[in-house]
Amino acid sequence: MAAIEYALINIAEAGNNIVSTPQLYGATYTLLAHIFPKRGIESRFAVSDRPEDIEKLIDENTRAVYCESVGNPAGNVADIEGLARVAHKHGVPLVVDNTVATPILLRPIEYGADVVVHSMTKFIGGGGTSIGGMIVDGGKFPWRKYSKKFYMLNVPEVAYHGVVYVDHYGEAAFVARCRTVCQRNTGATLSPFNGFLFLQGIQTMALRVERHVENARKVAEFLRAHPMVDWVNYAGFPDSPLYPMAHRYLGNNFCSLLTFGVKGGYEGGRKCFNAFRLFKRMVNMGDAKSLSCHPASTTHRQLTPEEQQKVGVTPEMIRLSVGIEHIDDILADLDQALEKAKSGVEEPVAANSKGV
Questions:
Q1: What is the CATH number of the domain that holds 169?
Q2: Do 153 and 233 fall within a single domain?
């Protein structure tokens, strides 16, 4: 979240606005919809992730277009080339959260994105042991050309020795200011040990993602055939409305984050969620371990029902981050949890050491 915040406040301030696709992670939506406005930064959410709907909201005070390459938990795949084209037409950068897709499946800068953010806590680390974020600056946006909009990169910076970022750092002007102004003065720095853990995770990320993708496909097929499942949102199904854009940007390697609806609405979803054994009931994703989440009662519970609907969350939805365990074990756990949801038998939720 610090990476997202820094990437945006680095170039936006009171009186400016950020234009975003509507399908966002819950905390990101809260940051844009409720935290930024208190600082005078307006967030504008388009009615869809289509470039034409984004363009309608851009004006002279817009400082960035923002999207998730693969929406969490919505599963939509953004048209990065189209969004970049619209953003650049109006002289603003495209900032992309690429956490779900990872650099293994998708590299947004190659499709025109200017700045990419990642939660390293997820697939990059792979073990759920550390919290960290990453900002990747493509180095191609012409900050000097739009010097009035982005004056903070084009005039002496009083917060850092009077440096003019476009002169001193050239193509790295944006990320240099992120580090020397945003991070240096607000302190979201990574500890050496967490940095070490992330470096270990990066070594196996490519292999892990390959297994994630393979297992997710088999899970989606299993769920689609299960009588207790109303629907499955998986971009790898050729008849899915998500498939054309997903195939364009991901090829045949569809992400391991997927959602499905349990029959029985909110209570059906909650009972299934509480019955998981192998799937850890955690709001994280991208672990080597399989993780499950009931967004309506966890990650997105702070949103109103209307806001949940806008970001793609429904009461019966279960979000799965499919891990790299043996597929037979994964499917067996899904089956027993769905059977408990059907029978109405509710698993007691174990308290942690603090009794929560």
A1: 3.40.640.10
A2: no
10-26 CB burial, b ≥16 within 10 A, e <16: bbbeeebbbbbbbbbbb
- Nearest-angstrom CA–CA distance, 175 and 107: 18
Distances in Å between the Cα of 306 and the Cα atoms of 36, 49, 269 are: 20, 18, 19
Contact 240, 234 (CB under 8 A): yes
Kind and range of the H or E run holding 340? helix 327-343
Q: Is residue 241 a contact partner of residue 233, using CB atoms and an 8 Å limit? A: no
- Is it the case that residue 356 has pLDDT exceeding 50? no
Which whole number is the average pLDDT over 52-75?
Answer: 96
Q: Are 168 and 43 within one domain?
A: yes
Q: Which domain holds residue 226?
A: 203-343
CA atoms within 13 A on the CB side of 335: 9
* Distance in angstroms (rounded) separating the CA atoms of residues 350 and 354: 11
Place 355 in a pLDDT band, splitting at 50, 70 and 90: very low
Could you count the other beta carbons within 10 Å of the beta carbon of residue 244?
13
Q: Are residues 60 and 208 in the same domain?
A: no
Burial code (b: 16+ CB inside 10 Å, e: under 16) for 94-126 equals: bbbbbbbbbbbbbbbbebbbbbbbbbbbbbbbb
Give the Å distances, CA to CA, from 4 to 66, 217, 346.
Answer: 10, 30, 38
Q: Tell me: the pLDDT tens digits for 189-217? A: 999 999 999 999 999 999 999 999 999 99
CA atoms within 13 A on the CB side of 84: 17
Give pTM, 2 decimals. Answer: 0.91
Residues 82 and 171 in one domain: yes
253 and 182, same structural domain?
no
- Biggest distance spanned by C-alpha atoms of the chain: 68
Residues 211 and 172 placed together within one structural domain of the fold: no
